[in-house]
Design brief:
The complex is a heterodimer. By secondary structure, chain A is mainly α. Chain A has 9 helices and no strands. Classes of the chains: A mainly alpha, B mainly alpha. Chains A and B meet through α2, α3, α5, α6 and α8 of A and α1, α2 and α3 of B.
């Protein structure tokens, strides 16, 4: 979906066009769900947070200025929804401590499995950036808007993560 | 070397993403129902207007709870009042003629 289509769609939703809302859901539901799943690593939680994200989208349509892409705006709302949810959980956990991904089902070879393990041991902030960039194909600018941090911080976190991986044994094998 | 790391990380994370469990399709249907619609907007505005009208009426009634609606006076006999008994001086005196 291009920028023009996204903007038109959001304008139509603002005017109460339910068909446009359904198109937006169809276009982004799975993406938002996968985005949230990569953070919370739990199917039910990701489903609940996806529902909550779209409800927030309906309620904050007037706040969309069009300065960024609708997808970036959606991801930012989704990320804030995840942060709110994590605060409500009281018990803080890192991205690595809870995971429902059926890792055994992923056809990793030895090198890839070691790399996957190393990625999981990265500090949370570095892993966030790595996941958004490599798993969700987001640009530095988009990541900066979603996490509400400067673009330079995105780059430095990404470089630090890559540097850390380079120092690890596994990358020497690549 | 850099490209190799990039490619490997992307491959690993993409494979992980493919293994994510799929969301339940019924939840999408529920979202369709939650979407804003023109009918909902109109209903909301009607409700808002109705509530405002009730609030205005209530505020009028509460502000003037004893506002008299003088009906009985029409049926009371005309009283003859001595002007000297009044506490105030009327600005205009009408002389009644028989």
């Amino acid at each position: 979906m291009n920028l023009f289509t996204e903007t038109v769609l959001l304008q139509r939703i603002k005017l109460g066009d339910r068909g446009a809302a359904e198109k937006l859901i169809d276009a982004y539901y799975e993406q938002v769900y996968a985005f949230l799943f990569s953070f919370c690593k739990n199917k039910e939680t990701a489903e609940d947070l996806t529902q909550e994200t779209f409800i927030k989208v309906w309620n904050s349509l007037h706040g969309f200025s069009g300065a960024s892409r609708a997808s970036t705006w959606l991801y930012r709302i989704a990320y804030n929804t995840f942060i709110d949810w994590r605060r409500r959980q009281k018990t803080f956990y890192t991205l690595d401590e809870r995971h429902d991904t059926p890792i055994d089902a992923v056809p990793f070879d030895d090198v890839a499995e070691k790399l996957f393990h190393n990625l999981r041991t990265l500090p949370e902030k570095q892993r966030e950036v790595i996941v958004l960039h490599y798993q969700h194909d987001l640009t530095y600018g988009e990541i900066a808007r979603i996490l509400e941090i400067p673009q330079g911080t995105v780059k430095s976190r990404l470089n630090a993560a890559l540097e850390s991986l380079r120092r690890s044994e596994i990358v020497k094998e690549l | 070397m850099k490209n190799s790391i990039d490619r490997q990380i992307a491959d690993v994370l993409k494979k992980e993403k493919q293994a994510f469990p799929l969301p339940s399709p019924t939840l999408k249907q529920r979202l369709y129902a939650s979407a804003p619609s023109r009918t909902k907007r109109i209903a909301w505005k009607t409700m808002l207007g109705f509530v405002s009208a009730i609030i205005i009426l209530l505020s009028i009634c509460l502000e003037h709870p004893s506002r008299p609606i003088i009906v009985n006076n029409y049926f009371e006999p005309t009283k003859v009042v001595d002007l000297n008994d009044l506490d105030f001086k009327p600005t205009k005196v009408v002389q009644l003629t028989k």
